[in-house]
Write a structure and sequence with these properties.
Elements (H helix, E strand, L loop, with lengths): L18 H6 L26 H31 L2 H29 L21 H12 L1 H8 L2 H4 L4
Helix pairs in contact: 2-3
Length: about 160
Amino acid sequence: MLPVDEEDEGEVPFGEPSDAERELRPDIPKAPSVKTFDDGGDFSGASDLDNNTLSAFVAAVIYANVAVLLVALGPMVWYFEGMTQVGSLLLFVGVLAGARTYQTWRAWDQSREPADEHAEPEAVATDDPTDEDPIDDLAEEDLADDPADDDLADDPADDDFPER
């Protein structure tokens, strides 16, 4: 049996790590610096953002937060408090806020697209003499001139029972 020291009785050696533990411990990684907005609230750090993008983002975030809050709160007021009119109104306004979030995003997305993408494409001429694809020409001729297909299409008995 080991003799028990009265001084160390009940003490557990926690606290400062030993030199060997300090050597084995990995280095703590440093997070890279991130560009943030100034704390002054004037958003001068967002100068590289387009003004329409920033306003659409802020509006969409506000609409989305209102939508999530009201869509969750409306049914709870309706069910737990028994206020059907208030609960249904909150739910309806939440759904409208969600729809407005989508409308805000779509308006921003469409404002970023070039105007020529919305125009209808011009008709492409199929009788282009430079377009030489003999396989397409053969396929079109075979479908148009096959008299056997006309005979099979007129026979109603073939439609009900396959040939064996």
